[in-house]
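INTERNAL AUDIT FORM
Audit reference: QA-55
Scope: verify that the stored structure record matches its stored sequence.
Auditor: D.O.
Record contents follow.
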Amino acid sequence: MGFWTDQRVLVTGGRGFLGSYLMEGLEARGCPQSFAPSSKEYDLRDLDDVRRVLEDLRPTLIIHAAARVGGIGANREHPAEFFYDNLVMGAHLLHEAWKAGVDKFVTIGTVCAYPKHTPVPFKEDDLWNGYPEETNAPYGIAKKALLVQGEAYRQQYDFNAIFLLPVNLYGPRDNFDPASSHVIPALVKKCLDARRKNARRIVVWGDGSPTREFIHARDAAEGILLASEHYNKAAPVNLGSGREISIKDLVALVADLTGFQGEIAWDASRPNGQPRRLLDASRAEKEFGFKARTELEAGLRETVEWYVERQASEI
């Protein structure tokens, strides 16, 4: 606890999905000075705003969780923005943080940085062994560039920058907008909407064969905060849950939890995305004692219940 009482922590994206769990984790740790300004207050794509937020808040520790994110559809429709926004936000902020004398910089990367055909489970040393899956390559490469930047600033300036690679996040408070959501919230909404409309079937992208690993955002936040406190090395670190599930089995599980009993139709004309995803998270456990706690079924049930309650409150 002593570590956190002396910190002034800036959480970029602190009002977003993952950021909300980071802010809760900081409060639970007794951090008296944590800040989560909005993008309207400080646009991190604007260099002047980056300098201003550092001058105004004077952080000692930055957790850079702000990102332009979305599912396969959003990545395909906005590749330039996904590349530019993520690269520029991170590059500006890390450089100016070093100039301002910030003690530590934590970059939140993405599993999308891994090559398309990475051997399972993904090990951090495999990051550079190929090109990312095409539909999210601009996003993944922009994030991976920030890993190189952090390593370069550590080498030349002895700047304490670390880089974390969480696998696909899910949980309450996720983005359920079908235009930009990831697979779990998209499926939850699709199944519940079908029930509400008495629809007999839902259509799901791809053929169901790809596999994914998911980590509850609350667990990911815990891993990030443990690394922020205890990890001070250049090497990137995976944050995962250790469970791989096919999209076909995931859809069946979500359908069961939402009570949807209709037909599941697969649109094979739509992209599958990366064939498999499963991280080797042993480095995180070895270096700072992190291990995910939330079982997928329990986390999905919690997510469905939260979304149902939110829908009820909006009626």
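Auditor finding: record pair retrieved intact. The longest helix spans residues 79-100.
Action required: none
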